Amino acid sequence: MIWIDRVPQVQQIKLDVQQRLELESWISVEIEDALSARAPQEQLWREMLRLYEGVPKNPVRNTPIENAPNIEVTLGAIACDALYAQMLDLIYAASPPVTVRATPNSFWVPHAKAMQGFVDWAVRNDFGSREEIEEAIIDDVKLGTAFYYIPFVESIKKTKSQVITSRGPKIIAMPPEDVLLPGGARANLQLSRWLALRFYYGEHELNPRAEQLDWDLDGVQMTGAVGWVRTRREMLGRTTSQMRVTPIYETFDVYCYYDIDGDGQYEDLLVHWDRTSRKAMKVGFNPYDKRPVERAMYQRRGHLAYGIGVMEMLRPYQEEATELHNARTANVVLANARLWKAKTGQVPTNMSLWPNKIIELDDPDSLKPEAMADVYPSIAQAEAMTISLAERRVGVNEMNLTRPSQVMGSRTPGITMMSMLQQINRRFTPAFDGMKLATAGAIVQAMDRYAEQIKAGDQQIEGMIREVTGVEDGNLIIDLLKTPMYTRHVNVELTASTAQSNREADRQNAIMLVNVLAGYYDRALQLISIASNPQTPPPVAKAAKLIAEKAGEIIERTIRTFDSIRDPRTFVIDVEGELDGLEIETGPLAGLARMMMTMGQEEGAQQQQQALPRGGGEPTVRRPQALARGMA
């Protein structure tokens, strides 16, 4: 089974010979120039992969003695693994991991609720996101940059006939070495003059694409090897793709702004290009509103497209700690060994030593031991200082690893402990937010792929949505996706909003919010009842209405302080709208209500008059004392 990228049907651009030659020449120069400009970055990535795996830089160390201790201290891997687990927990600890909310326009609230259920299902079953998100997180932490590619794909399985087993968007984690940008490109991927995604295909993957996507394979040539960074990945993983019998083709999907017709205006193109033969297999307009790529950076480099990862931050400290550690180990070995001094001819040349061995000598003083090294305890202190500096560089220390008791006593109050942990977690807010926004952007782009297929009239996708969510909710989702710029009406974001959030804190905040809103709703109901009562004097009704409005404003500002709430206006009562709905002052039933209330008061007065004694005196009033005696 293979995946084939599907894009909405667009008109393929027909080029004459000159236009094709100029386009192929331009892409060839741009791609090769970008690969050359990025060579130092790829060399750094290769080194970071080696440092993470803990492979020594030199296979054998002969300093200060032959076969000296040669251990790579993996400080970077320790920090990467801790941050990787923390970032993964941040994304998936919340349930559901994705939140869909409507904009202030209440018309779209049912659509957002229906979309919430479908996105939850798609994240679990259709997008294939969990494994890909894990790949992207480890790339982001380790190398500093992670990319998502979000196509609409068909999974094709061949038996006796070609059968399409599934169709839908996929979130694919692209290795950073396979996402190519012009040398010195700025951070915004959408504004770069071109962006290229590299894929390695075998013949069994390339030929179906030629049939299904109209790729022209005439003259396409196999490549000699996969990329430099990919080779290092495979070598460190004890595998290789260089031993394949079938040929491998190196292709690029190039999203570029290029004046194809010479009219002075740049067209937004998608070119499928083979690097080895320097041939454009297909040229067409970009079928997407924006390039289907999202990026996360652990630590930004100002105005550049690739970020700084944990391994790069810790590289100098890991190299220093490795040298100190090996020197300390060698010192331990040498301090426990002896160099023997002997007179010429007294000791056989092939003599070896072991415990309790007896050596017969004519003169015992002719064989004397000599210490090879002294013990230097300061090496351990120097190594500890280096590790401390490394922890300060990336913000990883014992507090947010496995031993918080080393820095917090057993009697530390819970609020104090939570505050200290939150203060530490702020160190990772930019990195975690970058990953959160990139993942949320990938999910939004996956929904964009559904919207593109629905606008193109794909009945199969509409049927699938109705089958998953039901007919009523499915129709709401389809209507929403058919709306131009549907993201103006609903927002899709990760539930985990900051590095400070955790389940226990979210639960306590939710309980606090419920208590705040319960009191607000009770008071608002009382104020609305006062303002809507026809017997309330107008100044009092006006004051009650004003108090309710001001209470709504302060409640909205309070709710905004809860990080888990993105739509505070949803929880605030529109007093003006509620009162207008009651039609207190100008409604046709207002006069009837007053008349009926007046009639009820007059009827009560008549009944009271009838209850008076016949003598016309005052009605009998029972005093409390008399009432008590009567009850007795």
Beta-strand percentage? Answer: 5-15%
Largest beta sheet: strand ordering: 7-8-9-10-11
Main sheet properties:
5 strands, antiparallel
Classify the secondary structure makeup into a structural class: alpha+beta
On the 0-100 scale, what is the average pLDDT? 82
The protein's oligomeric status is: single chain
The rounded distance between the terminal residues' Cα atoms is: 93 Å
Beta strands, count: 15
Helix content percent band: 40-55%
Low-confidence stretches: 398-408, 497-501, 615-632
Rg to the nearest angstrom?
37 Å
Assign an overall shape.
flat
Description of the structure:
It is flat, with a radius of gyration of 37 Å. By secondary structure, it is an alpha+beta fold. Helix content is 48%, strand content 14%. It has 18 helices and 15 strands. α3 packs across α8, α8 packs antiparallel against α9 and α12 crosses α13. The strands form five sheets. Strands 7-8-9-10-11 form a five-stranded antiparallel beta sheet. Strands 1-4-5 form a three-stranded antiparallel beta sheet. The C terminus is likely disordered. The longest helix has 30 residues. β10 and β11 form a beta hairpin.
